[in-house]
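Summary for the steering committee. One of the milestones for this cycle was to obtain a three-dimensional model of the protein with farnesyl diphosphate bound, which we needed before selecting residues for the alanine scan. The sequence and ligand used are listed below.
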Amino acid sequence: MVKFKFSSTWRCDVVSFWKKNNEIDENNELELDLEHIPKHVAIIMDGNGRWAQQRHLPRIAGHKEGMNTVKKVTKIASDLGVKVLTLYAFSTENWKRPETEVSYLMGLPIKFFDTFVPELIENNVRVEVIGYIDQLPTATRAAVENAMEQTKDNTGMILNFALNYGGRAEITTVVQEIASKVQEGTLQVAEITTDLLSSSMMTAKLDQYQDPDVVIRTSGEIRISNFLLWQVAYSEFVFLETHWPDMNEIIFKQALVEYQQRNRRFGGLKK
Ligand code: FPP
């Protein structure tokens, strides 16, 4: 039997990066190159439940604190000049959670926009949503649509919530739409290109920023969980041990520093 010695190099990077977060002093801020801030930052906000559990609190306390973190990170990203901040708030698979938790999560956008829209307007932030919002409870959908309407003229950062969003569902919907057009004779098979698929995705509303430059996932899990499957083809990934409610300005900036150290080649050669 051949035995493999587990090589943990890649995992160590994550862990050492996390240690670095805890050792940061204010000077580390200087490492962040403000001229090369990623344009589209996408975040899988994981660890709300574990954050609460560690404090002997119900899981929903973690989601509540997670919502406050959304407010903080929105402000930080907008101040840094990020163009699009996409936040994975509820997946098409999250309906499998207990009804009480789902119901709490569905109430969060209402609470969030109730209190935060004036600040979004003050900061010139536009709200967008990707996901199947027609399947949301009426009040949740109304809160989201109101926020989009109230901020539609803002020209600064786009705060893009992925709400009842799933990458596989999104691709399936696009394939169905394209197949229908071919069937009715309004589209030729040869006209099905990667550009056509990109411009048919829910992220098309983000124009030139539709693909994330960096995907950050908190809480130590190293997986994509059905998030922006088409769009992350050439995204950089930064995995943090920090639970989402503990995300703060220093950790967020360190994640961007980590991104800035990557050599993006998009399948080409190093410049
Ligand atoms: C995953 O952590 C988190 C979620 C499924 C919900 C994320 C939602 C928020 C952070 C608040 C969103 C705010 C607005 C305004 C919509 P988890 O619960 O799976 O954590 P665990 O893995 O530790 O259990």
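Key point for the committee: The two ends are 44 Å apart (CA to CA).
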